[in-house]
Amino acid sequence: MSILEIFMPSEDVAMIGDVARRWLDDVYVSAPNGFDADKWSEMAKMGWQGILAPEGQGGSGLAVGTGLMLAHEMGRALVVEPFVSSAIVGVGLALGMEDLLCGLADGARIAGIAGLFGGITAEPSSEGFRLRGTARFVMGGAELTDILVIARLPDDCEAIFCLQANAPGLIRNDYTSVDNRRLCNLKFDDVAIGSIIPGPIEGRSVLIAKARAVHNAALAFEAVGAMDHCNEITRQYLNERKQFEKPLASFQALGHKVAEMYADTELARTMAAMIITPDGTPASSELEARALALITLVSRTLGERAIQLHGGMGMTEEMEVGRYFKRLLYLSSMMGGETVPRHRIIEDLLADAESVQKDKS
């Protein structure tokens, strides 16, 4: 989505965002166990899970940017349900599977994503294929009904498979993330699957590349949403707390730190908007890596600064800022941390240098 669309969304998109923010502010409370079935059902009734699904399958058929705007609001409200994986990435990968799309759009089915960044292979067999490998940090736990798997075939092409979450041979290890989200590790131990989700090889590769970009963009916008709320509660805290009979916000040094937090957030927002274009075309690998490297760095430093400005109270579980810092740490890790994007940048630069050298020779 373009920078202009971030700051000046269309009237319809802005209305969806306003409704989402009001509901999340007034009604939503993060479930202690990491998933609230009633809240998930309410989100589905408002059309959020089907925001990107085709109209023929019960969705709204809106652009990726609308889903990213909802991801921003989810981050701002510390939503723990697997909205990004199921309603944004899952819907994009399930195109062509009408039954699954209908289930995802109405919230009756919840999809986890495995192998989006490698780790799973598919070997041809008499039944169709056998899946082997491991997927870590899969969003969702016991509530998952389906697993969308991206696996590498013997010819080095990638394919998309869909299987039930309780498929024979699929071993699931559930746990809770630092920000109280349900996650699981999946081990594919010769899992039998009948067929690939239909579609030409070229179409599959484009779909998977777009899913990776949408995944990273959604996490980035979720992080920006969390940063926005961090800024709000930090500014409010400094206005309320007093020292020497003056609000802390009146001290210039603290005001400068808050200004830096706001500036960093706008920089992260701008970089998040560069990961994918308005029509859903992924940015170049180098540009995406640069955006993720900056956003992960800003997420951590902004969270640390927010806690510092809250003083010792910021380290307690009762303070809201600590929970947002945990969310930012989680999202930074899911985007590759501060090292993986930098390694991607280096690899791209080395590949460019090698290409230039070959052209000269």
UniProtKB/TrEMBL annotation:
<protein>
    <recommendedName>
        <fullName>Acyl-CoA dehydrogenase</fullName>
    </recommendedName>
</protein>
<dbReference type="GO" id="GO:0050660">
    <property type="term" value="F:flavin adenine dinucleotide binding"/>
</dbReference>
<keyword id="KW-0560">Oxidoreductase</keyword>
<dbReference type="InterPro" id="IPR036250">
    <property type="entry name" value="AcylCo_DH-like_C"/>
</dbReference>
<dbReference type="Pfam" id="PF00441">
    <property type="entry name" value="Acyl-CoA_dh_1"/>
</dbReference>
<feature type="domain" description="Acyl-CoA dehydrogenase/oxidase C-terminal">
    <location>
        <begin position="217"/>
        <end position="348"/>
    </location>
</feature>
<dbReference type="InterPro" id="IPR013786">
    <property type="entry name" value="AcylCoA_DH/ox_N"/>
</dbReference>
<comment type="similarity">
    <text>Belongs to the acyl-CoA dehydrogenase family.</text>
</comment>
<dbReference type="InterPro" id="IPR046373">
    <property type="entry name" value="Acyl-CoA_Oxase/DH_mid-dom_sf"/>
</dbReference>
<dbReference type="GO" id="GO:0003995">
    <property type="term" value="F:acyl-CoA dehydrogenase activity"/>
</dbReference>
<keyword id="KW-0274">FAD</keyword>
<dbReference type="InterPro" id="IPR009100">
    <property type="entry name" value="AcylCoA_DH/oxidase_NM_dom_sf"/>
</dbReference>
<dbReference type="Pfam" id="PF02771">
    <property type="entry name" value="Acyl-CoA_dh_N"/>
</dbReference>
<keyword id="KW-0285">Flavoprotein</keyword>
<feature type="domain" description="Acyl-CoA dehydrogenase/oxidase N-terminal">
    <location>
        <begin position="15"/>
        <end position="80"/>
    </location>
</feature>
<dbReference type="InterPro" id="IPR009075">
    <property type="entry name" value="AcylCo_DH/oxidase_C"/>
</dbReference>
<dbReference type="InterPro" id="IPR037069">
    <property type="entry name" value="AcylCoA_DH/ox_N_sf"/>
</dbReference>
